Amino acid sequence: MTNTTTLRASGGPNWSHRLKDAGFWAEWAALVGLIVLVIVFQALNPTFLSPGNIASMLVAAAILIILAVGQTFVIATAGIDLSIASVMTLGAVVFGQMYEAGQGLGVASLMAVVSAGAAGAVNGVIVARGKITDFIVTLGMLSAASGLALILSDGKPVTVIDPLLLRLSTSGIGIFGWSFVIAIVVAVAAHVVLFHTRFGTHLLATGGSPESATAMGISTARIKIAVYLISGLLAGLGAILLVGRIGAAEPAANTAFLLNSVAAVVLGGVSLFGGRGTIVGPFFGALLLIALVNGLTLLGVSQFYQPLAVGIVVVLAALLMRFQN
């Protein structure tokens, strides 16, 4: 009896059956979609896969990957963080204010992460201890963080010119800019935490069934506080990379980061109902969204149509998720 026959007889995976399963495509929608986009855009515009354009896309994807990782931790507990982009803006403004005051790159970076992490912790405490739905809490923080950023900066951007910060966006290892390398490190660390630590097990259990998790002795309140804290800290890291990329601390929040961070998680196959998580999926989901916008730009498609294209892709991915087991 052949190995294939033995495998089938023993109930092993049947790849022909798997390929016919919509759930399989839901799990790998981001990677499959990315491959399809690369083939199509390269055929339509040969400069799409040029080293310079690839490097540019990877740098652009770094911040989104980091935010998507933070969003994944929250969504895996059946929550959502609507404030992540505004918290990142707050962190960027704090960075700019500290740098302008002559505190140096190290102190400015630390305060950016701490301030964003504090905002995330506030979200977590109110959700977990105050028993208020995450949608309302993070929506309120979205407004509060945006307002605080405007107050601290007086509505004015702060130019930040620092050689070390500039190198994060302009140099690296081949086509991999340092900011993208940082994003990879964050993604790998998040994967280890989520799937190879007790905290990760408790996190997924909390998202799957809070009542059962509590019965097993898991402090679901602490888990929820922790995931919003992680989301805030990663938003602070994203703020540093954002300042380095644009060369200024802008007080205006970019809502596209919020929408795209959620979109990357959905494309990555993470269940919006909690209990299921992956880091690889949102990683490729972020790359797919950046590749989509970049490819449309190279083809001369108006920016007005680009959000429409992103929305269609996300809705299709959400429809596929219905077929997940």
Automatic annotation (TrEMBL):
Topology of this chain in the membrane: Multi-pass membrane protein
Intracellular or extracellular location(s): Cell membrane
Any single Gene Ontology cellular-component annotation: plasma membrane
Keyword Transmembrane tagged: yes
Keywords: Cell membrane, Membrane, Transmembrane, Transmembrane helix
GO molecular function: transmembrane transporter activity
Transmembrane segments annotated in the record for this chain: 24-44, 56-75, 82-99, 105-128, 135-153, 173-195, 225-246, 252-273, 280-298, 304-323
PANTHER family in alphabetical order: ABC TRANSPORTER PERMEASE PROTEIN YPHD-RELATED-RELATED (PTHR32196)
Name of the protein described by the UniProt record: ABC transporter permease
Organism: Nonomuraea montanisoli
High-level lineage: Bacteria, Bacillati, Actinomycetota, Actinomycetes, Streptosporangiales
